[in-house]
Amino acid sequence: MKLKYLWLVVAVVSGLNFSVTAAQASATYQRTKTTAIKKQTYVATTTKASTYRANGDYRHWTFKPNHALKNYQKTTWTATQKTWITMHGKKVLYYWVHNSKNNATGWLWSGYLKPVQPTQAQLVAQTKTAKHAQQIVTVVQTGATTGTLKLWQKQGTSWKNKLTASSRLGGGGIGQSREGSSKTPIGAYHLSFAFGKAAKVKTGGLSYRQIKATSYWIEDLNDRQYNTWQNRRSANRKNEHLIDYTKAAPYNQYELAVVMDNHGQHNGSGFFIHVRNQWATAGCVAISLSQLRQLVSQLGTHAYVINVQKTAQLKNY
């Protein structure tokens, strides 16, 4: 008998969902002070409930249904305020919401709401980089040494995707890089200039340099011109002779490239967006030559790249 009674109690308690039913709408509840919250967009997870209007003070609060959720399928609800209501002896969270369909408003139990994940365009708009950029190239890792590159163009207050390309990354993927680590550096970097084999290349305003026999990228940590482009008659083997990578494919990585300017950040040197081949890079981002030409043709002087392991990390930069 004791065991049967215990199961009955469990069944009753587990059946509570802390939402107001039609029969409970006339009941009186206590609640906390209404407080404003950061706007968050949700979708409703049920069609069998309603939003509610409420009347009364903190100690005597009553509900009245005003909008049946079944009439708002495939729409979103934005929460702007919250309150905690004491129901069944427990404090339950309710949100003040308005609907995207016709701006219907009411109180809704938080258990019926599922957050809407922001799009990548929305995440780009929320980045710190977006405050001073006109173009942002995002590189999101998708595999051990692969990623997806996207070019975003600012248009008013929104960001539009102008190019999408599969990419190869450093042998160590995207992460905290250092000299010789073969990792693509995580974070945001200014795209300072383009360079390549041709005498002239069409850009969106980004400056361009032609590689000469004397062109080197200095990667010797002991060189006072470390991590810069220099023209020299010769340089030691720690430095990169750029013209050596303008040969026939697959050794044409620098037929066209864009500099990811990490100067002074002490996380390695010579990071570029360059021509892709069949191998992982030493830390650069590589896409096909045709797509790189499209990218460079659009890049201006206020362009940045953000390299991340996961899309959600974009908001950190």
Automatic annotation (TrEMBL):
Pathway: Cell wall biogenesis; peptidoglycan biosynthesis
Superkingdom, natural source: Bacteria
Record bears the keyword Signal: yes
A GO MF term: transferase activity
Signal peptide per UniProt: 1-22
InterPro entries named among the record's database cross-references: LD_TPept_cat_dom
Keyword field: Cell shape, Cell wall biogenesis/degradation, Peptidoglycan synthesis, Signal
GO terms for biological process, alphabetical: cell wall organization; peptidoglycan biosynthetic process; regulation of cell shape
List of catalytic residues: H274 (proton donor/acceptor), C284 (nucleophile)
Residue span(s) of domain L,D-TPase catalytic: 138-306
Record-given protein name: L,D-TPase catalytic domain-containing protein
Lineage of the organism: Bacteria, Bacillati, Bacillota, Bacilli, Lactobacillales
